Amino acid sequence: MCGIVGLHLRDATLYPQLGALLTDMLDAMCDRGPDSAGMAVYGDPTWSPEGEATVSLLNSPIPAAELAHILSEHLGVTVTGHDLEPTLVLHAAVTSDALTAAVRASVPAALVIGFGDDLTVLKGMGNPTDLANRFGLPRASGWQGVAHTRMATESAVTAAGSHPFAVGPDQCLVHNGSFSNHMSIKHDLERAGVSFDSENDTEVGARFVAKQLAEGVDLEKALLMLNETFDGFYTLLVSNRDSFAVVRDAISCKPAIIAETDRWVAMASEYRALAHLPGIDNARIFEPEPEEVYVWHRQ
């Protein structure tokens, strides 16, 4: 019984409020997943400055400031580090591939939990609201955010096992439910050269989607392919730098609600996470249909 929330802003005047709105949404879902949480923010100018790539890390044996210095020497550009225990966030004016490769080479024991030009991923264990406040999420800005409160069922309770799983550039996936055939799909992906960081069934879904996107499939088609391939009970919220999508399995026993206005699109596991959003009284509110993919694109 996990909790999902997500917010896609259409109105740029709301961008400074993204983190505060997302924090309130996450707070409403704490009782659905009290053991750990994760958040992803698109476009925050502190964590993901325009023109710079960002990498988020867990389990780094080197503090953020020291690692940033090492990477600066390696890359020949200034790398900035943020220590958001247990997550480290690093950004620099290089390509996402270059920064990610340099991070992996410098701290091979660390786990990359997010990377891209606009994306910051933050994960930790404990009360989700406490984590959000400790990370500084209420002060974050940007055009899109997703968050997840986890009640572990398929793998260990660790920060690394929390969602979102962000395994492709500027891509995130959060999940309520479980995949029943994920091991066979994982083996197929491994035979195709895909590597995994955890035993979590959600990572299999994220790797599957990332592989389709890397091969040129659009997000809607990738999620239709997921529906055809995966068995189980699931509600998924999947995002990248310009899209925000929701899909459910054929039975749809895992709750989901969507609200949409001219200023924003929001999704949550329960309505109470949406009740505080500006203009909610005039929103179009609906439950997503089974196996139908809903996608919104950034203009």
UniProtKB/TrEMBL annotation:
Coiled-coil region: none
Residues of the Glutamine amidotransferase type-2 domain: 2-299
Keywords in alphabetical order: Glutamine amidotransferase, Transferase
GO MF, one example: glutamine-fructose-6-phosphate transaminase (isomerizing) activity
EC code: 2.6.1.16
SUPFAM superfamilies, A to Z: N-terminal nucleophile aminohydrolases (Ntn hydrolases) (SSF56235)
Pfam (any one): GATase_6
Catalytically driven reaction(s): D-fructose 6-phosphate + L-glutamine = D-glucosamine 6-phosphate + L-glutamate
Name of the protein: glutamine--fructose-6-phosphate transaminase (isomerizing)
Taxonomic lineage: Bacteria, Bacillati, Actinomycetota, Actinomycetes, Mycobacteriales
